Amino acid sequence: QVQLVESGGGLVQAGGSLRLSCAASGRTFSIQHMDWFRQTPGKEREFVARISWTDNSSAYADSVKDRFTISRDNVHDTVYLQMNSLKPEDTAVYYCHLETDSSWYWGQGTQVTVSS
Question: What is the pLDDT of residues 63-81, one digit of tens each?
Answer without folding.
Answer: 999 999 999 998 899 999 9
